[in-house]
Amino acid sequence: AKRWQHTSARPALNSVTPDDIAHFAQFLPQNAILSTLSPVSVAPAEIEQYNSDWMGKYRGKSTTVLRPHTTEQVSKILKWCHERRIGVVPQGGNTGLVGGSVPIEDELILSLGNMSKVRSFDPVSGALVADAGCILEALTEHIATHDHIMPLDLGAKGSCQIGGNVSTNAGGLRLLRYGSLHGSVLGLEVVLPDGTILDNLSTLRKDNTGYDLKQLFIGAEGTLGVVTGVSILTSAAPRAVNNVILALPRFENVLPLFKSTRRHLSEILSAFEFIDRTAYELAVKHGQGKGLTNEESEGAECFVLLETSGGSKEHDEEKLNALLETLLESDPPLINTGVLSQSPTQFASLWRLREGVTEAVSKEGKAYKYDISIPLASFKDVVDATKEQLRKKGLLHENAVKHVLGYGHVGDGNLHLNIVAAAYTQEIEAALEPFVYELVSSYKGSISAEHGIGAMKTHAIHYSKSAVAVDVMKRIKHLFDPHGIMNPGKVLE
Ligand code: FAD
Ligand code: MLT
Ligand code: ZN
C-alpha cells in the first residue's frame, strides 16, 4: 500500500490522545468508543477490522474508532477534530476497493454502522429517506414490502452502506436501467468538517433553487464531510424479471450482440454484464453459482448475462426467445448457446456467477483491480495487452501473476481488469503502473469508472482529469475543509 507523507502543501494533523477520548466520552455512549488509548483501552485486535480493507491490501494504524448513533454526535465529533486538527476517515461497510475507507496513518475512524434507521418511505413517490449507515440489502428488503426496488444493486450489498454507496457514487449492476446516483439521489444530510449540519434532505424530484450542493458529496469519498442521511428515489418493482446467460464463441461478438439486444429488448433490458473465460472459470472453481454445463460452455471465449425487468413474464419471455433465435440463426451465429433461468433459484444462481467473480478472485489470490471506462470494442485488447506486458516482464507464472481477467458492466462501457497474483509485490505493481493508466489514457478513457480514487489512484488522477479540473477540486476541498482533516491522502494528493 502506498504511504502518504505530510508535505508542506498539506497541513500537519494531530494524533488522537487520551484527553480526546475523555472529551468524546462526555457525549458518546460507552459502546460508541473503541480505542486502544485510556481511559477505554480495548485490545488492538478489536479495531483491526476497521484498519484493514476488504482486499487485505491497505492497512491503517488508527488507535480509535467512534461509532456515533446520531447526526448531532457526528457534528460534535467533527467540530472537535476540526479544532484539534485530527484526521477523520468516514467508514461505511468497508467494502471499498481503492483503499479509501481505511486510514493511511493514525486518523480517527468514524464508523456509520450505528446509524441504521429508515427515516421514511413514501409509497406514492417512491422517495426513501434513511440513515447513511443502513446496509443496502436491508433497504432493499425494507422497500420490497412496499413492492419497490432500490435503483442500485452490487455484489457487496450485504455489507455496503447507502452512505458509502453515495460517497463512492457506486455504479453496480442496475445502472444501465436506473441511471447513476447523480440522478436518483434526491437529497443528502451532511456534516461538514467544522461540525455544521447541512440539511439538504429534500424529497422533491425537481428543485432548481441555486447550486445543487448534494452533487458535490456524491463520489467525494469522504473528503468533503460525513454523509449522515440519504434521500433516494426508488422504483416500483417490476412485475417480471428474467435472466439468461449467453456463451459467445469470440469476444468480437459482444458489440453486435449488445446492439441486437438493445433493439430486441428495448425498454425491458435491465442488465448486460460481461465475464471473460478466465473470470467464468474462477467463479465456477470457487463455487459462485451455476450456469452452463461443461458441454455448453466449451469453446466459449466469453459470456454475457442479460436481465430483463418488465410487466409480463410471458411477454418478456417471448421477446427473449425471439432474441435468442435471432442470435443463433445469424450467420455465423453470435452465440454458441443461451440458457434462460427457469426458477427463482436459477435466476439467483446465474446472478451469483457474475456477482461472485469478485469473491472468487479474492479466494484465488491477491488482486490488482483496475476499474476503467474504455470503448467497449477495446475490452479484450486491454486485457490482452496487460497480459503481454506481464509476460514480457517475466511475471506471468504461478508464483507471480496467476491470472489476468476481464469482467464488468458492458452496457456502461466499464471494464474490471483484474490481475490475480500470489502476493502483492512492488515488481508486479511497477509492471502494471503506469502501464495500465497510459493504456486507458490512450483510449481517452477513465482510470476510475465506479470505484473511486481512494488512496490507490491519487497520483494517477491526471490521466483522466486536466490540471485545471484538479485545481478546481483542490479549491473546493480547501473551501469545505481548510484544515484538511477529512480523509487525508484520499482522492487528492
Ligand atoms: P466504504 O468502503 O466504507 O467507504 C468507501 C468510501 O466512502 C471511503 O472513501 C469512505 O471514507 C467513504 N464513506 C463511506 N461512508 C461514508 C459516509 N457516510 N460519509 C462520507 N464518506 C463515506 N462498487 C461499484 O461501484 N459497483 C459494484 O458493482 C461493486 N461491487 C462490489 C462487489 C464486492 C464483492 C465488493 C467487495 C465491492 C464492490 N464494489 C462495487 C465496491 C464497494 O462496495 C462500493 O464502493 C461501495 O459503494 C462502498 O460502500 P461501503 O459502505 O462499503 O463504503
Ligand atoms: C463488480 O462489478 O463486480 C464490482 O465492481 C467489483 C469488482 O470490480 O470486483
Ligand atoms: Zn463493477
UniProtKB/TrEMBL annotation:
GO terms for molecular function: D-lactate dehydrogenase (cytochrome) activity; FAD binding. Keywords: FAD, Flavoprotein, Oxidoreductase. SUPFAM superfamilies: FAD-binding/transporter-associated domain-like (SSF56176), FAD-linked oxidases, C-terminal domain (SSF55103). InterPro entries: FAD-bd_oxidored_4_C (IPR004113), FAD-bd_PCMH (IPR016166), FAD-bd_PCMH-like_sf (IPR036318), FAD-bd_PCMH_sub1 (IPR016167), FAD-bd_PCMH_sub2 (IPR016169), FAD-linked_Oxase-like_C (IPR016164), FAD-oxidored/transferase_4 (IPR051264), Oxid_FAD_bind_N (IPR006094). The keyword Cell cycle does not apply. It catalyses: (R)-lactate + 2 Fe(III)-[cytochrome c] = 2 Fe(II)-[cytochrome c] + pyruvate + 2 H(+). Its cofactor is FAD. GO terms for cellular component: mitochondrion. Residues 58-237 form the FAD-binding PCMH-type domain. It comes from the Eukaryota. PROSITE patterns: FAD_PCMH. The keyword Flavoprotein applies. Belongs to the FAD-binding oxidoreductase/transferase type 4 family. PANTHER family: D-2-HYDROXYGLUTARATE DEHYDROGENASE, MITOCHONDRIAL (PTHR43716). This is FAD-binding domain-containing protein. It comes from Lactarius akahatsu. The lineage of its organism: Eukaryota, Fungi, Dikarya, Basidiomycota, Agaricomycotina.
